[in-house]
Structures are given as C-alpha cells and as structure tokens.
Batch of 4 targets.
Target 1
Amino acid sequence: LAEYYWSKKPSKQTGSIGILLNGYDNYVTNTIVFDYSHIGVVMNHGTNILTGVHTWNGGGVGIVNAALGNRMIGCYLDGNVLQLDFASQFSVTNTFFLDTQLVVNDVVPLIDALVVTDNMFVHPTPIVVKNIPYVLMNCVFRDNLNSPQATQATKALSKVGETVFVFDFSDVLLFRRIVRAEYSISLKGNTTSVPLSYLEMYDEANTVGNGGVALVNSTSSCAVHLNFVDPYANVTIIVTAF
C-alpha cells in the first residue's frame, strides 16, 4: 500500500493513511505500507490484530493505536514510530524497531495492561514517554533488546553514621512516577524489610525505622528519600521502586 507509485516523487506529503481501521475484530497480515503514506496504520477501534505488518512510509508515524484491546505480533517499524495515543490493554511482541521508537502519547495518567515484550530496538532512546507521570497497573515490559530503562529498578547505598539516604531512579525508570517502593535495612548482619505503601503524586511521609520518615518524590526527581532521626552505623539500605 502506498500513496504514490515508487517511481513518482510527490512534491509534498499529504495527510493520507495507508490502512484505517474504524471497526472491531480486523486482521491485517503480511502487509507493507511504503512511501509516501503520511501514517501507515491507524487503529481507531479495538480488538484488532496486526501480524507481519511492515511500515516503511518515509519516516514520521508508522502505526497509531487509539483504542483498547489491540495487538501487534511480529511487525516491523522501519524508521517510523509506533505511537500509543491509547496505551491501556495494548500488546506489542516480537516486533523490530529500526531507527525508531515506541512513543507513549496517552493523555490519561493511568495505564492498565500495557504489554511490551520480546522486541528488538535499534535506537539510542527506544521508548519515549510524554510529559504525563503515568501510573501503571498490570503492565509488563520484558526482554526488550537495547532498551536501557525498565518499570522497576533496585539501588543500594552503604553509609556510616548518616541519617539521610536519597535514591534517584530518574536514570533507570521508564515512567517518571514511583507508585510503590520497598526498602530493606542491613545492619550488623540483621536485615529488616519494610514496604512503603502506595503514595500519591506529591510528597507524602511514611514512618520508617528510628522514628524517621520516608518520602517518595514522584513528580520531579523520581527519587526515594529516607530520613532517620538517629544515624545508623555501617548500614546498607536497598530500595526497589516500581
């Protein structure tokens, strides 16, 4: 599918769409969308399946998902992005991203059941999240080659006689909002593990050991702050953020 024959060069790109799905339960298989379709595939309704779809339409946007329940299996985005205007209940697996990205562009701050597994990215920033700090529920990001960020991460700090521990996860967490954090304290061979409960968008305090407080700053620095009243000696603290 294309807007022009390969031998013709358009003077400018139009707003054309190669495949527009305005219904449910459609299957698009073994299809190439090439120059110069403005957008390769748009899914405006749910429960559709793309299998073996290769979008090669001159850069820009290859595939747009705008509804729940759609799936992509074994597709190929060739220099054009996969744009998720609706990210919940969407699955993309075994797909190749050549010099392009997956862009989460949802305007709803809660994303439920987004599955991105077993894909290959050839791009320095494979997954891009827009400015909204999303909350994730039942989401899976696994075995995506060349993707340096994840939806959970663990960091450790060892200090002597300190009361303040700051764990900054902005360099490793994909979504810029910490929904939940767990930490453990190792002191003189004894280890205690304390889960932090769900925290809202703004800084809220939870009681921690030694009568101190824990702050999850999930809107600006994507960090966990542990502040203790009395210093620990030779303590190692491990924090996992989700």
Target 2
Amino acid sequence: MIGLDSSAPRSAVAEVNSSGEPQPQASFKAILKDLKQCRLIFWVHIGAMTFFYLAYLPLNMVASGYLLETWANDSSISVDTRMESIGNILSIPLLMSSACFPLFGYFADNFGQRINFMYLSAVALIGGYFGLLFLPPIMALIMIGFGYSIFGTVLWPVLVFLVPERIVGTALGFVNAVQNFAMTLFPIFLAFLASSSGNNTPGVITLLTCATLSIASVMIMNRLDKLNPVSLNSKDQKALVEAVEELYTPKSSVPLADRAISEDDEINNML
C-alpha cells in the first residue's frame, strides 16, 4: 500500500473529498485563516483554560517542597517517611477527580450551567490555595481536587460551542499548543522562585495568583456570553451548536474581522 501510494502522481492524492469538492490542503496559512475567524470569547476561553491548568498541573512540584517545609517538618522523622506521607495526601485531588469527572460531566450535559461551574471551580481553587497557606493540607487538597474535578470536565466540551464544527480540530490543537508552551516555561519560573527565595511559599502564592486570574477570565467570558443568542449555561446542546454555526455563517458582505470589531465596540459599551 505504501509503495502504491508513493508511486501515485502527487496531484492525484487527496485532491477531492467524498462529495467531489476540492479537498482543502493543510498549511500554516490555512490554520491562521481558520483561527482568525474565531470570536473574542474563544480567545478569552483559551486564557481561562491556561490559567486553570497553570493553577493545578504544577501542584505536586510546588506542594511537595512546601509541605516538607511547613507541615512535615519534624526533623526527628526521616525524610523518606515524611515524603511518603506527603505523597499520600497529594494523591487526594487525582482520586477525587477520578470519582467526580463523570458526575460533573453528567451535570453539565443535563443541566448546563457551564460558566457557573467555571466560577465554582475557580472559587474552589482559590480557597484551596489559601487553605494550603493557612489550613491543614488535607482540607486544602480536597478543595483543590473539587476545583480540578469541575474545570477538567467542563472546560474542554465548551470549545465545541465556541467555534463552528469545521474548525473544532484546529481549535483544540491550538489550545493544546498554547497550554503545552505555557507549561514548558511555567515550571522553570516556579523553580527560579524557589531557588531565589529559598522556599516554596512564593510558588504557592503564584498558583493562587493563576487561580485568581482564572476567575477573572471567567467573569469576562460571562459578559461576552451575554452577547450570544444561546447562553453557554443552557442545557440545550443542539441549540448551542446551531447558534455557533449561525454566528459563523456569513449573512452579509461584512467581513468576519469587521464583525469582530463591532463585537468589541459592543463590549466596550457594556463596560
């Protein structure tokens, strides 16, 4: 098969789709063209997702050292025993998410309230990181696990309701690229904070800051969502999909970019 395919004329490969129409060719320019169509709420959602994941994914990296300094700091106990205790309680958020992901997925599918769930998730993360600074760590990690269980379930499906079906794959790929790039640099920054300060408290405060920025992003999303014909809090998924397809279907000669500017003007008037 590989040999036959490689020997076929280049112009004959993937030129038409099943309906006989020209098959679009993947290119960086085509990807940028697709992303340029996306409305402002999509870009704000990317920011919210990035802050949510920056607030959670480096947790074990930061919290293990922080708890060793503050909670498991009894020098009469061996470091190995203390690290084992820290590892046990750091498993709490993942254990909670294993149990709660299907539950919150069911709630989002059947009751909607996606933006409200994002608010709840951000509040739980903020409370969890405050708790890590001032409360017993088990309570704090339960709150962080609760927050992760919500945003890990709700954030990704929302993307389907923000972009038309034809560019969902492009949008998902771009979001992953942004997050991976951020997660490449963020641990380096956290390591710099720890080495320069000599402890992990600034790292915990940085994660708390990311959680705070996530709720700020959700607040902006909520304002933008009010401009949509169907709210992201709606449980009618079919109506949400139809609404986003209609928003991205040209109805006049006004370019999408100009309509995006009009959207920005309307937002400024609201603010």
Target 3
Amino acid sequence: SSNFGGALDNVKIEHIANFFVDHMENDNLGRIAAAHMAYADSDGLYSNICIELAKLCSIAVDFPKTGVPAIFPKELSPKKYPHFMEKDPTKSYHSEKILGQIYDRLPNNINDRSAAIDGNGFDANLLLEGYEQYVENAFVDFEDYYADLCDIMESYQIYDEAEIISGYVGQFSAYDYQNRHEKNGDIQARLCKEVTLLIDYYHDLFWDEFGDDTREIEFKHMQKASAWYYVAYEGYKKYYDQEDTFLSFPWVVVDIICQIKRNINQS
C-alpha cells in the first residue's frame, strides 16, 4: 500500500507512482455505489446495510485526496440486482419499486426522444393565483441554475438533461473516460454527487427568501414553486424565444410541487 501516513516534505516520482497504483487497486466507488442502489431497492434506503455502504461511499469519494481506501467486503456484494440495473439476467429480479416502474415505462429505444416525450407535459393547474409576484426573481434563479447545469454537462460532455439529472448515462464520452482514468461506474457516482449538491444548493436557495428554518409548506411557498414551474416550462421559451430549457428546475422543490398537486386533487 502507498498510504504514507501523513504529508511528505519531498514528494518524489515513486510516491506518485505508488499512490496511482494504490488508487487503481483500491478505488471501489463504482462497486459501492452499485451495491447501494441494489440494496436500496431490496432492503430499503435506510436499512443498516445501505447506511454502511453510504459511509463507505463517502470514504471512497475522498480516497484520491486522503489516500484512505474504502474497503469493500465481499459479503456486501449483492446476490441479486433489480432489473433496471441491467445486470446478468440470472442474477436479476423484477423490481416493483418506483425506479423499476419508470424503467418499464421507457420505450425500447431510449434514443427515440419523440417516443419518450410528448411535449413538455406543462400542467397549468400547478400555477396558483398570485404566483406572478415571484416570477421576476424566478427568472434570475433559473438563469443561474441553467448556467450551473450547463457547466456540469460540459464537464462530463453529456448534453441530455434527463441523463444528467437521473445519473443514468447511456455512454460516457471517450474523452471523459481517458482523461479521468476511471470506470464508467466511478464517473457516474461522481456525476450523481455533483448533481445532488446542485439540487441541494437550489433547494436551500428557494427557502432562503422566507428565512423559515421549520420549512413547513405554506401558500406563499407554493406560489413561489408555481413561479419556478412557470419559468422553466413556459416563461423561458416565451420571453427568450428559444426552445432550450431545463425542466428539472422546479423539481428541485418536488415536495412543494407535490403538495400543490395533492391540494388540487383534494379540492
């Protein structure tokens, strides 16, 4: 192992070479992330094994900086995988959980966007009375979100919003693979972490205006969520006269959007 046990005053080429070899031998991020997904489907996200894997994942992500590897015990390797992970059919089962349902609804040819998407699915019922007061600031937040998501897309050379947000990338570019010296699973795990940080940032930004630590959903919060929804689905195209938009923007506050929908269904 090349774990030096601390900082070095004089780093030599053999130290770098040893660390590189150590990294290649012990980088288990992809395996850990895949195992976490499998157990989250079968045992639940908050099961003991998922919590243990989440801790290992945190160690694995920091491994290139710390030199401390995440040891992945063989006994944590899943015996079966949900079908949407597209593993060996003999080791797969049909998942009835939400990811399995979404996977089953996809067209056979995922590249056929016309089959996958029929318009943008705009739901005017999600626009609550008074949402207009939040539209101006929503445009500002959307433009920042747009720029940040574009940066991630450019970094990984993935230009499909659905792939970026879901983490299910059809194919990473050869450039990305060669320059990162990582397996696709490892790149995918890092991509997911970046997107999660982005979503968390804009979720917190949404609430900052209200200065409410309890974050109990009130009508004013739903009005603002409506404004975010409007800007992403209709406003951006209308006022900037372009089709390119990121529909994921309002779903950063999916809990509030869902509350609006529940209220509509109950009324």
Target 4
Amino acid sequence: ATIVPPPPSMLASHTTALAAFRLVLASGSPRRADIFQEQMGLNVEVRPSRFAEDLDKSAYATPHDYCLATSRGKALEVASRCCGAGEAGGRAQLVVSADTIVSVDGRVLEKPRDEAHAREMISSLSEREHEVITAVTLLLVPRPGEAPSEQRCFAETTRVRFSRITAADVAAYVATGEPMDKAGGYGIQGKGGAFVQSIHGCYYNVVGFPLNRFCREVADLLGLEKAETEAIIWTLEIKSDDSHLGGRGPVGAVTAG
C-alpha cells in the first residue's frame, strides 16, 4: 500500500518534542514574543540581539538578500553570547532571529529615524503596493558551548497595498508614536492597519514573523514530520505482520480497526 505522509505539521502537535530544546528568541520585538508565547504557546527565552544593523545595502543584490544577511547576523551574535557551556542545563538549543523590512521600488525602508522620516516613509506608500519581507534564521546548537550544527535561513514576502492617505492622516498617525519602532513606519496590527487596502500573503509576516512558514521549517529542521511519518509506517507494518491473527496485535492487545 502507498503510504501518504501527514500534511505539514503545525507545532501544536510537537510540544513534547520541542520541550527538549531551549528556545531562544534573538529579538527584542514584543510582537514576535507575543507570537511565540500567545499564538504558538511556546516557552521561549527572549535575548535581544546586539548585532549592529548597519550592513551596506549596496553590497547586496536585492532587499531580500540584505534582509537575510541581517537576520543571520542577529542569530549568530546571540548564539555566541547566550549559548555557552553554562547555559541550558545541557539541553540542545534552538536560536531564532528575524528581521523585517519594507521594500518599495527596490528601496529598503526600515525603522524611521525620527517623526519627519516616518511621515516621509508613510506618504511614499500611499495608493501603492509595497513588499514586506521578513527573514528568519534558525540555529541549532546541539550542546551548550558548541558551534551550531545546523543553520537555516529563509525569507517570506507579503505584498501590501495602501489606499490613499492624506497629509493630515499621516500627521495624525505619526503623532500617536506607533510608527517609530516599525519597519516602513506602520503597524498593520495597530492603528496603521486602517491604511491597508489589501494584502497578498501571510498577515503575520507583516506583523514581523511568518508564523506558518516558521512552523513548517522548524518541523522539517528537527525531523518532526519525518518522525511522525515513520511512526505511522511502523504502526501499519505491525498491523500487516499481525494480519494472520485476524487483526489482533500481540497477546492481550487490541489492534484498532
């Protein structure tokens, strides 16, 4: 019989396996921490990265490449500082970092420098589509004090379109203070969501962390889906071997039909 593997698993079904790892979020973003703790229900240690986010954008072919490099730098900095021999009680560690940028016409928009810069950023998005790119890096540290054994980097892109925004709209929004710590100068999950006419792609990616893609990548990295599939195959093989017993398993056991 053909064995059909289960669909890509969400982390809710793997909480026991993940509990064996020390999860480290290399970000000071309260929105990312909420996604881990509230949305996914994971116990995560928040260790903001000290990586100097000052890479030369002109050195990268695309905003996508620049974002990946920044995310990688954040993860490596935290791993070198927070995954030493005295950490995690001997457990394996998974360091997760992320970097979010907005790209319009190939120009990278990060967090605004000041209110004038925020007004300029938001105004440039009026009645236009832009891309929100979030790059994520996963570092698997098998034992405290060791170098990462696995490194995985990926980026998700969501297209966002703003409706027409007046100068008064922009000024009022910037006055709330909300834009100042957000890539592109707006937060879709807050008051800035009123500007959004449509999105194509992952909503959580615009918030700052691609939830669905992360779940799929982690399950693959840690072999969780493979383990689940192998368990199904093993169960079916046991049933096949015991078929001569009329569908009964070992003595005293009942095999589900």
